[in-house]
Design a protein that fits this description.
- InterPro entries: DUF305_CopM-like, Ferritin-like.
- It comes from Saccharopolyspora hirsuta.
- Pfam families: DUF305.
- By secondary structure, the protein is mainly α.
- The chain has a single domain, classed as Up-down Bundle (Ferritin), CATH 1.20.1260.10.
- Helix content is 74%, strand content 0%.
- The protein contains 9 helices and no strands.
- The chain is globular.
- The chain starts with 16 loop residues before the first helix and ends with a helix.
Length: 205
């Protein structure tokens, strides 16, 4: 079971641990079931470890939101360094989604459709809070901004987003069982931590 951090954002109240685990389980099962209904059309037996399977089902829509945020930057950001970073995030996380979907397919799991799973996830506000994700309202607001205001909000949203990803990656590294996925998660975590350091420097400058 993915253990999500109690309050990645101090500005929002924390959800109690028991409820948090319930939301994580509900979301993971919903995403896997929905992917099966939209993809194979019939239920597919889960052959991978539950921790690994849940991680991929949750990380795919998590990455998808980072891509959506980063797609706004070329036309709205004012800082060239932020534009460059957002382009790397968009490209790298797009490739990682494909890698995670490939892992699902190789392990007999339904392949999670990123846009569909993302929309389902936005309907669970407590869940997205604890994964460090932006709300639908925050995403809508970001899309209205430009210049330094966009730069500030992009960092305000993407930093906790990366922090949530790091926590999820740490969990699957510690508790998952698949060695290929473990290596994939370690590589992702190195990238996320490096990008976090860059964004924190940008935010403090």
């Amino acid at each position: 079971m993915i253990r999500l951090p109690p309050g990645l954002r101090a500005r929002r109240p924390a959800v109690r641990k028991g409820r948090q685990m319930m939301f994580a389980r509900k979301l993971a099962l919903l995403v896997v079931l929905l992917a099966g209904l939209l993809g194979a059309g019939t239920a597919v037996a889960q052959t991978a470890d539950d921790v690994d399977a849940e991680f991929t089902a949750m990380m795919i829509p998590h990455h998808y939101q980072a891509i959506l945020m980063s797609e706004l930057a070329p036309d709205r950001a004012s800082d060239p360094a932020l534009k460059s970073l957002s382009d790397r995030i968009r490209t790298e996380q797009g490739l990682e989604i494909k890698m995670l979907q490939g892992w699902q397919g190789r392990n007999g799991l339904p392949v999670t459709d990123a846009p569909t799973a993302y929309e389902e996830m936005l309907g669970m506000p407590e869940m997205i809070e604890h994964m460090g994700m932006a709300t639908r309202e925050e995403m809508d607001q970001l899309a209205t901004l430009s210049g330094p205001a966009f730069d500030r909000m992009y960092l305000d949203l993407m930093i906790p987003h990366h922090e949530g990803a790091v926590h999820m990656l740490q969990d699957v590294i510690l508790h998952g069982s698949d060695q290929d996925l473990n290596q994939m998660a370690q590589d992702m975590m190195s990238t996320q931590k490096a990008q976090l350091a860059i964004m924190r420097d940008m935010q403090s400058s």
